[in-house]
Specification:
Layout (H helix, E strand, L loop, with lengths): L4 E6 L2 E6 L2 E5 L5 E6 L5 E3 L3 E2 L2 E6 L1 E3 L6 E3 L8 E3 L6 E2 L20 E2 L11 E3 L6 E2 L11 E3 L6 E2 L20 E2 L20 E2 L19 E3 L11 E4 L3 E3 L11 E4 L5 E2 L18 E2 L20 E2 L11 E4 L5 E2 L11 E4 L5 E2 L6 H11 L1 E2 L2 H6 L1 H4 L3 E12 L5 E7 L10 E7 L12 E16 L9 E14 L2
Parallel strand pairs: 4-7, 5-10, 7-11, 11-12, 13-15, 14-16, 16-17, 17-18, 18-19, 19-21, 20-22, 23-24, 24-25, 25-27, 26-28, 27-29, 30-31, 33-35
Antiparallel strand pairs: 1-2, 2-3, 3-4, 6-7, 8-9, 31-32, 31-34, 32-33, 34-35
């Protein structure tokens, strides 16, 4: 084949149009093919042009978007033969074709982002010497068999996403498996080498893995890394760091967590019936064990926070929340048949949607501190936002027929002359009886602070507002 080469200087780079190929001269004097201009769909790439070696298959930049257009991208190519001597296959070089078989030369050292994505490749062997496989490099093919080199250190984002892989042997020495690397395949078994330090988001999501690998090393396993598989049993050692939803939507019945774990969870939508949390647990991850079959759970004494929806949708009937717990996130225990709860920390923050109104009323009574008028007046900042219990006689109700009532509670004497009174806001439940002046009541609720939006009934001109404690009531019980 004869090549007519035209040298076109552009900035500091030299491009050469050589027959079907547009090439670029590299600093070492070799050629990189940056564009294929032919029509053949079965390609044999020459090892040299005009006796100048070809060492790279590259791309050109689209001026308006900055996107890399691969040299052979979207050319309807069915087969390609690559010569020995090529060391780099760059971004999108062979993307968006119909290639069903590829032999990668032993000389290759770099496979960049999207190099062979969106083809029909069914088998690939990555040669020794390659350290990293680029992001999406072989994504969206039909690969059912891949050989990975012992030199491999890192597998890029989505590198083998959406293929037909059933079995993958990861080489010793591999350290990073990036996000989505093997998601959407048919892998049924995987062994994680002891060299691996990180498994990325959704790295093995949506496969058919039945057994979680025995991982002994210190490792970070990110969100949804093993979601949507068929795993039945998980055992985590103390060096493992997990994220929200790591094991979501499997068939897990046994979930073991070693002592030493501080953050636990990551297994929603499974079939766990019995669960023991390590005594070292400090934080239960949001959604940790949502939608399982757990009927009994012991919250360890070092737990500080129970995340949102962490035990939602289980079969728990009773709970003890230890004194260490400072916060229960919204819906953490929603959709459980819980009948009794013991709360040991009176300063606990409880998010919405956790318990039935009956159970919540019992909790409110447990965590409330019984106070008097002087307590609130002397130290309002100390009690602000806290659950309190207070009793007295209703002196006045503003708009008594409204569902939202403003109630003034007299704690010692008559309304007109005595100043020992507090303001209470309260929302009536449907069909709840209304409270009347002179009713003696016990009230549980949250102390809002001091308010001065009301004036004394003796202040005819309305010039002097009075300061009084302000309470948002949860429960009011009339003393008969």
């Amino acid at each position: 084949m004869k090549y007519i080469c035209i040298c076109l200087p552009i900035f500091i780079l030299f491009y050469f149009s050589c027959g079907e190929y547009k090439t670029k001269k590299l600093p070492d004097g070799t050629f990189e093919i940056v564009q294929y201009k032919g029509d053949d769909t079965n390609i044999t790439i020459p090892s040299n042009i005009k006796n100048i070696p070809i060492t790279s298959i590259g791309n050109t930049k689209e001026w308006t978007t900055g996107l890399s257009i691969g040299a052979f991208q979207n050319k309807q190519i069915a087969s390609v033969n690559l010569p020995e001597g090529i060391t780099e296959i760059k971004e999108n070089a062979f993307a968006d074709n119909k290639i069903n078989e590829i032999t990668i030369p032993q000389s290759i050292r770099i496979i960049e982002k999207g190099a062979f994505q969106n083809n029909n490749i069914n088998k690939v062997a990555i040669p020794e010497g390659i350290i990293e496989i680029g992001d999406m490099a072989f994504s969206n093919n039909q690969i059912d068999e891949v050989d990975l080199p012992s030199t491999l250190d890192k597998i890029g984002y989505g590198a083998f996403y959406k293929n037909n892989l059933k079995n993958v042997i990861l080489p010793a020495g591999l350290t990073i498996i990036n996000d989505y690397a093997f998601s959407n395949n048919a892998i049924n078994q995987i062994i994680i080498p002891e060299s691996v330090t990180m498994i990325g988001i959704s790295a093995f999501e949506n496969n058919q893995i039945k057994k979680f690998p025995n991982i002994k090393q210190k490792i970070m396993i990110k969100d949804r890394a093993f979601a949507k598989n068929e795993i039945a049993e998980v055992s985590l050692n103390s060096g493992t760091s997990i994220s929200q939803n790591t094991f979501e939507d499997n068939s897990i019945t046994k979930f073991s967590i070693a002592e030493g774990f501080k953050n636990v969870g990551a297994a929603p939508k499974n079939q766990i019936a019995s669960l023991t949390l390590p005594s070292t647990t400090e934080y239960i991850i949001p959604g940790a064990f949502q939608n399982n079959n757990i009927s009994r759970i012991i919250i360890p004494n070092h737990v500080k926070e129970i995340g949102e929806s962490s035990f939602q949708g289980n079969k728990i009937t009773s709970l003890r929340i230890p004194k260490s717990v400072e916060k229960i996130g919204s819906y953490a225990f929603a959709d459980n048949p819980i009948e009794s709860v013991t709360i040991e920390n009176k300063s606990i923050s409880i998010g919405q949607g956790n318990f039935s109104s009956k159970v919540m009323n019992n909790i409110t009574k447990q965590i409330s501190t019984s106070l008097g008028y002087e307590d609130l007046m002397r130290q309002p900042d100390k009690w602000q936002g806290k659950a309190i219990k207070i009793s007295g006689k209703i002196s006045q109700i503003l708009d008594p027929n409204s569902r939202k009532a403003d109630i003034f509670l007299d704690l010692s004497g008559t309304w007109e002359l005595d100043t020992k009174r507090i303001h209470v806001s309260y929302n009536y439940d449907d069909n709840e009886e209304r409270y009347l002046n002179n009713d003696r009541v016990i009230i549980w609720g949250t102390f809002i602070g001091m308010t001065d939006k009301f004036r004394s009934s003796l202040d005819i001109l309305g010039l002097n507002k009075i300061s009084m404690p302000d309470l948002s009531a949860t429960i009011i019980e009339r003393q008969k």
